[in-house]
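User: Could you write out the 3D structure of this protein bound to 3-isopropylmalic acid? I've included everything you need below.
Assistant: Certainly. Input first, then the structure.
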Amino acid sequence: MYKIAVIPGDGTGPEVIQEGLKVLKVTSEKFKFQYESKLFNFDGTRYLKTGKALEDNDIEELKKYQAIYLGAIGHPDVKPGILETGILLKLRFSLDQYINLRPIKLYNEAFCPLKDKKPADIDFVVVRENSEGLYKGMGEFKNKGTKDEVALQISYNTRKGVERCIRYAFEVARKRNAKKKLTLCGKTNVLTYAWDLWERTFHEVAKEYPDITTDYAHVDATTMWFVKNPEWFDVIVTDNMFGDIITDLGAMVQGGMGIAAGGNINPQGVSMFEPIGGSAPKYTGKNVINPLAAICALGMLLDNLGEAKAAAAVEGAVIKIVKTKLKSLAAGKMGYGTKEVGDLVVDNL
Ligand code: IPM
Ligand code: MN
């Protein structure tokens, strides 16, 4: 019996999660596993009512679950930064979800903004460090409010944090068994402390993986290759900030936020799966948002629980409808409503 915590969140989060839960139910019947899910209102609406973001006892409660299924965090009436740090980043940090795994896979070339790129050309995974770097929130103001003001924002990188992330990425490259290539994406030419540590660690860990080819690309060049030669990539490992930036570009080359999913993973603890697109307030409640990113996130959740066949079936059903049914992956342009897209996935399972 799997225990799954569900945080629908704000905006279109609840709508897409509802479709994901529909798919979960059917998948459990077909693949004969049992689960129990519980909804949690850790979101902007609760914050506006109670002033509470995520409390320590909320985290303790979530630790009783095997996985978390998250819709989206972000409310138009809450000042930017509060919910992001108080809920989303707090979840990632408190549960030590030190990997942010973001597959970039094109399912239908008609939805790719790049000319002449086929599904075989766009199929890679970004392993984003998810617990350190610039996201650590270290820094300070000096002489705040004066003309001599200085703002420091520190990128915090530990040997242990970098090493566990790099090792995880090598394991992903081995398990994928595709090009068996791992690219370190950094900025060794300018950020000479952080990326010196990353590079040294990368080469040391690489010795344990003689079956994996290694490569290096500066982050600026990486964005160029994503557009020009995405077929060069298999697995990419990078820090928290660069990973945030390059995976938005990755989402676009795979067809947009409507299909992009990610996992916040603690390999020894509770992991959390989410569509990466945000709460999209302007589409809320209109049955127009694409639920496929949330459904793909559910597939990743199932894979993480060890239900590999169920996960593959979910992905297969998504591929089928992306190839044969949808007119577009964008909100309002799919040719179907949110619920109908969820139904199509269920029908194809
Ligand atoms: C993401 C988001 C978050 C991040 C924000 C909402 C804090 O952009 O999941 O990529 O920066 O990690
Ligand atoms: Mn982001």
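The chain has a mean pLDDT of 98.
User: Perfect, thank you.
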